[in-house]
Structures are given as C-alpha cells and as structure tokens.
Amino acid sequence: MEFSKSEPAKEDEQLGSTLEFKNISKYFPGVVALDDICFQAHSGEVLAFLGENGAGKSTLLKVLNGDYQPDKGQYLLDGVEKHFRTPHEAIEEGISVIYQERQILMELSVAENIYLGRMPANKMGVINIRQANKMAQKIISDFGLPISPQTKVKDLSIAYQQMVEIMKAYSRENLKVICFDEPTASLSDSEIQCLFDIIRKLKREDKIIIYVSHRMDELREITDKTAVFKDGRYVTTVANGEVSEKELIKMMVGRDLGDVYKNLDRDKTIGDVLLEVKNVSSDYVKENSFQLRRGEVLGFSGLVGAGRTELMRAIIGADHMRTGEVFLEGKKILNRSPKDAMDNGIVLVPEDRKMQGILANLSVKGNINISMLDQNSNQFGIMDPGKEEKTAAQGIQEFRIKTPSPDKKILELSGGNQQKCIVARWIATNPKVLILDEPTKGIDVGAKSEFYSMICAFAKQGLGVILISSELPEVIGLSDRIIIMKSLKIVGEVSHAEATEDRILSMSMIGGDNIHE
Amino acid sequence: MNEATKEKEGKSFLHSMVRAVGGEKLVLMGAIVVVFILFSSINKNFFSLTNIINLLVAASLVGLVAIGHTYLIIAAQNDLSPGSLAAFSGTLCALLVSLHIPFLPSILITLAAAAMVGLFNAAMVNKIKLDPFIATLVTQAILRGFAYIICDGKPVPISDPAFLYLGKARFLQIPVSVWIMIIAFVVFGFILAKTKFGRSIYAIGGNKDAARLAGLNPQKIITICFVMMGLFCGIGGIVFAARMNSGQPAANINLEFDAITAVILGGVSFTGGVGTMGGTVLGIILIQAFNTGLIMVNVPSFWQYVARGALLLFALTSDYLRKEKRRKNLLAASMKNA
C-alpha cells in the first residue's frame, strides 16, 4: 500500500490553525500519567497518536478535551494558552473528541443528537424540529450518508452512530480540532473506508485531525504524521514514510523484552495435578474445564471479554458458580465467597488494581495485613500489633516494595509497588494456587521484569500459578502451557514450545487451532 | 526509628503534642474551649458542675447513637432511623412495663425489637442494594408511625420503680445514662481500633469490592454494624424514657442529625474508611456544648435549627477540606516517589 499523499497540505492558508502542547505533565497518586508531553498539530493535517496501552494516549485526549487539567505545561490553541476546566469549555472553543464509547443518546433522533442542547428554537424557547431536521439533512447530504435525520439513533448501525457523533462535532461552526480515539475498533472494512472519506473531507476543510490507533495499515493510509508515546512520555514525531513500521514499533515499545524472558529462571519440574476445574459456569461464563499442576505457570490468553477474568471469579466464588466442580489436591472444594477460596488456598490478584485490589484509605501495612486478620489476632479477635508489623515487614522485604515506611498510605506508592503489596497480601496467607489477572498492567518496565522473576519463583516453590495476560509476549514468555478462551469458552491449548503470537491470536479470534487444518 | 522520634521530640513540645494528638483533634479541642469560654462569658452558669453534668446527660443518647454512626459511616454506610427507633424503643418498653410485664423481660423484648430493625435496615442495604440513606429513611418513617400506633399517640407514663430508678440512679455523682455512654465509648473505641472487626470496618469502608476479594465478608460486617446501631438506639431510648418518666412517641426528632454532625466534626469521612472514636467523643462534646449553650444564652428555638444546619455545613466543609489536603499530600508524595 502506498502512503497517501494525494491531499495537499494547505499550511499557508489564512484559516490555518495550530494546536500545540508544550511540556504537559499530569500526575495521579502513584502514577505519572503524562510526563513532559510535547506535540504540534496543524490544520489540514492528520496527526496520529501511537503508543502501547498505558502509554498515556487516553489521558492525553482527556487533557485535550478539558476533562483533565494538566499539572504542568502549556496548552496552546492558535498560539493562545488555554485552561479548559470542563469538556464543555473545550467544545465551545472548537475541540471535539470522538470516543470509542458512544456519547450519543440512543432514544433521540439523529437530528436531535446533532443539535443536542442547541436545537433551533423560537423566542419562547419552543423547539423547531423541522428546522433542525432540515439543517441535519444538509450535513447528512454533505457527508453523503443514506440516513434520515428523523431516525432514532438506536436503530442505526454502530458505524452510522459514530457518524452521528462526527456530524455533531462538525455541526459546530467553529470546529477546529477533531480527535478520533481508535475509531475503527468496531467497524468493517467498507465502513472504515467511509470513515476515511469523511476524515479526508475534514482535512480538505482545514480541520486539525488527531487520530489515535495502533493499526499500522490505517496510520499509513490516513495520517500525515505520527507522534509516538511511550510510558507517558513523548518519544518523537515522524512524517509518514520517514521510518519503517518496524522502527515505529521499536520506538513505541522502546525495548526488547525477548531477553528478559530468555533469562528467566524457569521452573523445569512440573508436579502432579493441583487444581482441577470441571464444567464450571456462572452467569458470565459458559462451562469450562482445565487442570493446573504443581509448579506450573498456566497462561490464559484471549481477547478482552473472552471470559478469562469471569472464569477465575467463578472459581474463587466472587461470582456465583452455576454448575461444575472444583478439586484441589484431589479433594472437592466449594468456594461460596473469596473468603472460602482463601481458606482453601486459592487466591486472586485482580485485574483492576485501583477498584478491586488496593484499599486506598489504608497504609501499606494495613493493605498487606487485611487477609491475615485471623492469623494476626488472638481468640478474642484482638489484633497483635507485633504480628502485623512482622507480616508487613516480611512482605516489604521479600518483594522489595519501595516505601519509606510500612505506615505510608498505599496510594503514595508507584503502581508497581502497589501491585507488589497485593501480591504480598496473598503470599502471606501461604496459598497453593495464585491467580494473577493482568498483573503487569499499567506498571513500568523495570517492575514488569521483577514480576516475571517473581512468578517463576512462585512456580519453583511449588505453587500453581494462573497468569491471565493480554500481552502475548508476556504470556508466551512465562507460561508452561497456554489456554486460549474465546466467547466465554476455552477453545484451545498450546504448550510453551508450540506457542507463537500468530497461533494464539488466531485461536483467540477464530476459535479453532487452524494451524493443524 | 527511635532516634528519629527522639530528635523530633527535642525540636519542640508543641510539635510533639500535635504529633501525639493529631492536628485535627487539637483544632477540635480548641473549638470546644472557645465554645465554653464564649457561652460562659454570656451566662455564668454555663461552666458549672451541675451544667456540665446536665450537658453529659443530654449527650448520653446522642453519644450512643454517634458510636453507631461512627461504625456505620466508616463502613461507608449511614442511618437516618435512630431518632424514630429510640422513641419507638422508649415507648415500647414503657408500654410493656405498663402491661405488667416485669422490667427486665421488657428491656430484652425491646432490645430484640430494636435489633430486628437493625437487621431490617441491613437487609435493605445488602439484599435489595438500596442506598443506606434512602433505606433508613424508610425505617425512619415506619418506626415513627409505630411509635404512635402502639400507644395510640399518647405518652406512656412509667410507674415501675425499677424503671424510674434507671433514670435517677447515680454512681459517684454521675447519672447511669452518662456511665453507659462512657463505658460504650471506651469498649467500642477499643473494638474499632484494636480488633479484627475494627480492621474489617475500615477495609470495607475504603473499598467494599476489594475487601470482599481480600477475603472479608462485607455484608456480614454491615449487618453487624446496623444491628449494633439498633441496640444503641434501643438502650438509649429506654434510658431516655426512664429519665422522662414516660415513653414519648414524639421524642428524639433530629437525633440522627446531631449524631451525624458530631461524627463528621470528629473527623470521620462522609465517604467512609477514615475516622476514630476519639474524634467522635470530641465531636459529641462540641455539639452538645453548642446546643446547650444556644439554649442557655436564649437563642430563639427557630434560630437554633438554623445554627444546627450551619454547624453541619461547617462539619461537611471541613471534611471536604481534610479530603483535599489528603489528596494533595498524596499527590505530592507520589510525585516525589515517581
């Protein structure tokens, strides 16, 4: 495919506007979300934002549309510094973001959505719906779409719903900047072409267009320049065709984790069956069965929504188990709640650290100790402060948790260290099965490799480790076996030796193992 | 560690005092002193032993309820039914005694009923997932209704000597109602700060989902808190009736209002997970001094409502400011670590 250069950039036009971020930083407790971000975008140009998950793209968009206020740096529109306090203020100044999740009202018509909050009305405030339909029809014709302004949005396909959002932004006369957040995620090929036509139209009309995606072929086709982000930092901006895709990926990943996996001290002796799951289903997953052996790292791969987390939640009793049986060391167990699972020796480090892992109001010590209340108290339920100190100190030492003191609030720690506290919490209970759900999500590279060594060490100690991860290199690099789930069911299994990214990806998308077909 | 603290202590007496007691509590103590000086300067009788004992007696019911609220609000719950439940309990117990049921069984029946109300509140929150504010608004209305229904709207006079003695008895010059409050503060302060149950309350108030995944049982803990509150209202209501010599179905309106104000003033965060019993004690003293003082300096009763509302607004604002401060400190600390 050729790089699209058919659209001449009209840089020297009077209408031309610019958007510039100078040294923008944004902090959250425990995280530097954006660190010194710089970029420039010009009208009549499509600028891509490229970066891995957690690179800071979505935070950046939220700063851009006024949802977040930067803690440092300058936000310049046409050279004037802006301080948007709300998305509304940004929209008023001509900045619109089209998100992945639709921001439209399903029960309203196309026209009502386009002119939401600014419907044409007479002096008394009575809305003139005919006028609105007429105006909407003009935009729809402009866009060349076969839909009616009176159709309810819920009756439209996802692609057209997205178009309604774009038209809503477009209908504002002062629209200057329009950002697309992974706009093609749920579109078919022909729909993507339709979207691109509209982006080209916006480009001809001298809008600034920002396009967030990690689909390389799309970037090649529709964008002019690419700004690369990594771990909340700005890397560089390259013009289309300036560097190869491989180089782009390298810039965006910025490291080669291959060696990290190779050098891991993996457990080579795998023991007898530790955990057996038979036909387990819940409201959220279909019937699934698998086995986990002592000393084994069992990877779970699959697309988001494949049911990996939900299967684990059913096993530990976080969700109600509808059917099926769970055997631990050959004995049947029943987990009605995570507490039962903990008492049986099965523990889960949840995916969403902030919402399901940490207790934000408590200290590091309080967080590590929360699952040890029984062990660290006497028969009257009175806590033994000495034992609590000891549990915390052990966890901090064993997992090298970087904290000035055990009494510091957990939120003061970096994401990786917060996650280590959760792991320390569970290891203190001396479990047999450790389930890690996306344990390295949103933590920095250094902490990631520490986690990898930790996981191998757990397996060596004879624990059964279940590792759910959406990062293919991670799940391949660490697991002895990988189970693949699709649409709430286990669809296949590959061994460490046979595992390749292509194979796992095709199994998670298509279902069967087409390699053998 | 020890050397570091010694060094700090050496720095200044004031500094170490702030560290020991906590800055927020010192502010609260200061406010109490100011209130006492202010009202005493207007009415000489304010700072007399009799008045202080009266003040503590008046605080005894709201004090018990505030203990319940301390637990519930730290657990990110709330309860608007205590006023109705206390009036219902006092009336019920007086009624049972007037029906010639002996005093002790009457107390037990009343407390069982009050505990059931707590269970009912917990069931609404746990099983039909109602917001505790709205759920307990239901019981507030229903119980007030029942308080009137059981006695046909008329106060129930008490003639039983044992019951009346409960309202009059003193130990070391201090009335029984005050002793009950003091003992309850000590016992439940200890439980909150030092036990497994206390730790669980902070955890579920901070993050219920995470606490459940960490092996706690939030529904059970919430149920216990509501039942405790029911019992506090039951005990408080019975003692209140004894002091009034009758069961009063119309009594204790706005009881929860004062208790919640005191708890928030004392540093319990309205969003849960943060606070101490010591703070609540100070909050109770402050609000009771404030309320009694308003009466003693002859502020018209209509204006007392306005003043109470203003005090609650002040408490909530200071809660907000504390939260903002914590957030800023956290941000500063995490920027330093990053």
TrEMBL record, chain A:
PROSITE patterns associated with the record: ABC_TRANSPORTER_2
Domain ABC transporter, first and last residues per copy: 19-512
InterPro entries given in the database record: AAA+_ATPase (IPR003593), ABC_carbohydrate_import_ATPase (IPR050107), ABC_transporter-like_ATP-bd (IPR003439), P-loop_NTPase (IPR027417)
Swiss-Prot/TrEMBL keywords: ATP-binding, Cell inner membrane, Cell membrane, Membrane, Nucleotide-binding, Repeat, Sugar transport, Translocase, Transport
Secreted is among the record's keywords: no
GO MF assignments: ATP binding
Name of the featured protein: Sugar ABC transporter ATP-binding protein
Organism for this UniProt entry: Caproiciproducens galactitolivorans
Automatic annotation (TrEMBL), chain B:
Compartment annotation: Cell membrane
Keywords per UniProt: Cell membrane, Membrane, Transmembrane, Transmembrane helix
Residues that span the membrane, as ranges: 20-40, 52-74, 106-126, 132-151, 171-193, 221-242, 263-290
Major site of localization recorded for this protein: membrane
Membrane topology: Multi-pass membrane protein
PANTHER family in alphabetical order: ABC TRANSPORTER PERMEASE PROTEIN YPHD-RELATED-RELATED, RIBOSE IMPORT PERMEASE PROTEIN RBSC
The protein's name in its UniProt record: ABC transporter permease
Source organism: Caproiciproducens galactitolivorans
Taxonomic lineage of the native organism: Bacteria, Bacillati, Bacillota, Clostridia, Eubacteriales
